[in-house]
TrEMBL record:
InterPro entries: UBR1-like. This is E3 ubiquitin-protein ligase. Keywords: Metal-binding, Transferase, Ubl conjugation pathway, Zinc, Zinc-finger. Signal peptide: none annotated. Ubiquitin ligase protein which is a component of the N-end rule pathway. Recognizes and binds to proteins bearing specific N-terminal residues that are destabilizing according to the N-end rule, leading to their ubiquitination and subsequent degradation. It comes from Umbelopsis vinacea. It catalyses: S-ubiquitinyl-[E2 ubiquitin-conjugating enzyme]-L-cysteine + [acceptor protein]-L-lysine = [E2 ubiquitin-conjugating enzyme]-L-cysteine + N(6)-ubiquitinyl-[acceptor protein]-L-lysine.
Length: 438
């Protein structure tokens, strides 16, 4: 076990030699120390003089402290958070239904179905051999990892009792893939496409394992905190948080896999029906995309010449491309199809109206000012970043009366794009536009 926990190959070879030939003599050990100290003394001295070196490496070592997936995250706390969101969203659902359709039965039934999670807690506390094989995958070499992937596919796909294992271990596997894996191309999480594209498995993990919420929570935590730490902050606080595009998470491309898994799940017909029927899924998805609303806002430089332009906008647009695809797919869940009968069309229309009003409520509650604190900026590395411009919400904007000849007067937001921050990233508006197309 110790052989695989050592940090470098040189140390591993030295330990292997010690095991086979016995411990080194004191004279040999002193000779090695004398030759190595003179070579590394100058380098160590320069490294100690650099404060940024220690800040960067302290965080990197904290993230890669172990070469196995983390088992210490509290699923009970995460499940309790989901249940609280389900209760709140059921109340909002009933309030909207009472005002528009004079009905509240649907929201209560949905809430009762979500809150029964005692069996799910017991399932997560029980660990199988298959679970430990997944979690210790990082310690294995390439050939074994590829062979185990084939074993998992043959085990998980045909047998119903093992189908939930991918959803059960997704958070720990995502943590290992995004932050710890030295060979991400061999990660177990990459074979999820062969499972999540199966309708029965996708429906099972979403309805019984909160898989959609887990993906949203993993992505939210990764972009806000530069790590995977669950449960995340409360939803009321998360709604006012914005990501910082200069964070380390934006420079990584590994998050593409999580967005692909989200799209695979949303594209399943049975999951589309669950999204329409369950208001919690819309709430969780809005909680994800609202962090990227108006990110990377820029102010026009009118009096100064920009000699070197930052490439932060490239990382921001890479994330935006993934979010835009997900927003279009999520909005298509509410679209009526030719095979739908009259009753299904009526239910989809009601769900569509509630979804549109729910986004309007997010807009009315949105207050984004320069005084809010970013969660990612609490880290040591974030203290060196420059503060990003903010765009205030509807309640914080200044309004004025605009008169147009022939059409009358309009009360609009007073905003000058030449002097105030402007952003190209508006996922909430993209989701609203997709819903209005239906």
């Amino acid at each position: 076990r110790d052989l695989w926990t050592l940090p470098t190959n040189a140390h591993r070879r030295r330990l292997a030699a010690a095991i086979s030939t016995g411990p080194e003599s004191d004279s040999d050990h002193q000779h090695d120390n004398h030759s190595s100290n003179s070579e590394s003394a100058d380098l160590s001295r320069r490294q100690r003089q650099s404060s940024s070196y220690y800040r960067a490496n302290s965080k990197r070592n904290a993230l890669k402290r172990y070469d196995i997936a983390d088992l210490n995250w509290d699923y009970n706390a995460l499940l309790n958070q989901y249940n609280e969101l389900a209760e709140e969203e059921a109340l909002v659902h009933d309030e909207m239904s009472a005002k528009i359709f004079k009905s509240t039965a649907v929201g209560k039934k949905v809430a009762e179905g979500i809150l029964s999670g005692s069996k799910l807690r017991q399932e997560y506390e029980r660990k199988l051999r298959l679970d430990y094989l997944m979690l210790f995958d990082l310690r294995l070499w390439k050939e074994v990892r590829l062979a185990l992937r084939q074993l998992f596919i043959s085990s998980l796909a045909p047998r119903p009792d093992f189908k939930k294992q991918i959803g059960k271990n997704y958070v720990t596997l995502a943590d290992a893939f995004l932050l710890r894996d030295r060979e991400p191309e061999n990660s177990i999480i990459l074979f999820s496409v062969q499972l999540l594209t199966v309708p029965t498995i996708a429906s099972l993990v979403v309805n019984e394992c909160h898989f959609l919420g887990q993906i949203c929570s993993v992505l939210s935590s990764f972009f806000l905190t530069d790590c995977v730490s669950l449960p995340l902050i409360t939803d009321s606080k998360q709604g006012s948080m914005r990501v910082n595009c200069e964070a380390r998470s934006f420079r990584s491309r590994r998050y593409f896999s999580a967005f692909h898994d989200l799209r695979y799940i949303i594209n399943t017909e049975s999951v589309k029906e669950s999204i329409i029927r369950e208001p919690l899924y819309l709430r969780q998805y809005i909680g994800l995309i609202i962090m990227f609303q108006d990110m990377n806002a820029l102010v026009r430089q009118a009096d100064t010449h920009i000699e070197y332009e930052s490439e932060t906008w490239v990382n921001a647009f890479n994330v935006t491309l993934q979010i835009a695809k997900c927003c279009r797919q999520f909005a298509e869940c509410y679209a009526a199809t030719a095979s739908d009968n009259e009753a299904i069309r009526v239910d989809k229309s009601k769900a569509l109206v509630r979804a549109i009003l729910r986004i309007f409520k997010v807009f009315s509650d949105w207050v984004a000012t320069d005084t809010e604190n970013e969660l990612a900026d609490s880290t040591e590395l974030a203290k060196e970043r420059l503060p990003q411009p903010r765009i205030a919400g509807i309640q914080e904007q200044e309004y004025h009366n605009l008169h147009l000849n022939g059409t009358g007067s309009y009360w609009i937001i007073k905003y000058d794009v030449a002097t105030q921050p402007v952003s190209f990233h508006h996922p909430l508006h993209w989701l609203l536009a997709g819903l209005l197309e239906n």
